[in-house]
Amino acid sequence: MQVSVLTIAPAAVTLTQDLPGRTSAFRVAEVRARVNGIVLKRLFTEGTDVTEGQVLYEIDPAPYQAALDSAKGQLARAEANLTTARLKAERYKQLITAKAISSQDYDDAVANERTYEADVISGKAAVQTAQINLDYTKVTSPVAGHIGISQVTEGAYVQAGNATLLATVQQLDKVYVDVTQASSDLLRLKRDIASGRLKADDSGKARVKLIHENGDIYPEEGSLEVSDVTVNALTNSVTVRAVFPNPRGELLPGLFVRARLEEGSSPDAILVPQFVVSRNSKGEPTTLVVGANSTVELRVLQTPRTVGNQWLVSAGLKAGDQVIIDNLQKIRPGAPVTVAPTAPPLPATASTATAH
Fold first, then answer.
1. Distance (Å, rounded) from C-alpha 180 to C-alpha 212?
2. Domain locations in the chain as residue ranges
3. Phi, psi at residue 251, to the nearest 5°?
4. What mean pLDDT value characterizes the chain?
5. What is the pLDDT of residues 150-192, one digit of tens each?
């Protein structure tokens, strides 16, 4: 019987993997109360962008201003006492040289001076603490980003002990996409790159594309930043994190997306059409090739993933093999065949392999 064949010729293929995940903010800052008091003013509009250091709330500063004034008074008293004690110690130093006073009197004067020095240090610390608490009455944004709904209104009493949540600021100029990948896939990827079967990009980081729930591809390309070092014992998977630029604010935290990880490129991949691959009784993929003496030979293949409408073959075929592509129902292994002069054209397919 005459059959048409496809002669195997290795080709370069980019390998990718689609993984489901969700977006999250690049930075999330919870604005919380750091002093107790009544909220006097809210100084921002909900749902707008704020800058780092922008004042968001004003808490009643009166008690903290009073505490600062009291601390300054205590510091002034300590400094005055220190001045007197220091002058006395200087006079006693001259008198002890002339042996006009006892050594005990001089020692007492020096100790008194050091005591007031300690009081001044404590007073300065008290002033600094009071100033810090007064500054905390003006609640500022720790990062630049998009602020959400205010959790308190004017007149609300907030507490530092409970760290009352006032608002949340999220930085969205970049976003994270966290996906889970089977640990076996991660190990296979590292092994293939180490052996040279796959080639990573120049930076050594896999490039990532984002696919929306409706199938649209996000125009900005991301990069794989980090993978967790611990395997989840329940799912046998690891968490992989990618970073995507978000200049137009299209990506919001919590979106369900699919991340297409570009794992690397295989310079000598073998591809065969899906329709020439069938399954044997064990469920193994097989195909028919023209073997020795122009007889049909059954080959068992390893087909880890697809490339468009073709299988990527990792074992079972080699360059130059002639895969039979027609009359597959009429021939059996061992049957003699003749190869047709020309093979019919095959449908065009993509050059990117996606794991399924």
1. 17
2. 2-11+268-345, 16-25+172-266, 29-56+139-171, 62-136
3. -90, 120
4. 85
5. 999 999 999 998 889 999 999 998 999 988 878 777 777 677 6
